[in-house]
Amino acid sequence: MEIIERYEDEILTILLKGELDAKSSIDLDETIKMALTQEKTRIIIDCQHLSYISSAGLGVFISHLDDLKAYGGKFVFYGMNVTVYNVFEILGLHTIMEIVRDRFEAQTLMNES
Q1: Quick check: pTM over 0.85?
Q2: Which one of 4, 54, 71, 91 is most buried, counting C-beta atoms within 10 A?
Q3: In what order do the strands lie in the sheet with 98-100?
């Protein structure tokens, strides 16, 4: 798993490449924790190169959801392949997390908040 961070207009974009499993979810958790300590609460997750997500990977996002909302922030996911989206859908996470098709939609949605 490769995790790449980009900051633009007070929005953090986290690009995920590869498989988000139990091992790599620890690194992602640290990345998000660091963002929160720096008061970066508007986070876009680029899933275009994410091929797999485990329950541990999902748990990272779920565990930070309330913190982000408390600080007026949120996650917006984009570019999910069908397999990854199905995992979110099966668990009902697509109803509590914002998932859009592309970067433009993600940025538009983030700027509306």
Answers
A1: yes
A2: 54
A3: 2-8, 11-20, 42-53, 74-78, 98-100
Q: Where are the domains of the chain?
A: 2-112
Phi then psi dihedrals of residue 94, to 5 deg? -65, -15
CATH 3.30.750.24 fits 2-112, yes or no: yes
Q: Dig out the tokens for 34 from the structure.
A: 């660091």
Tokens 């798993």 belong to residue: 1
Tens of pLDDT, residues 85-110? 999 999 999 999 999 999 999 999 99
Contact 84, 50 (CB under 8 A): yes
Give yes or no for residue 113 having a pLDDT over 90. Answer: no
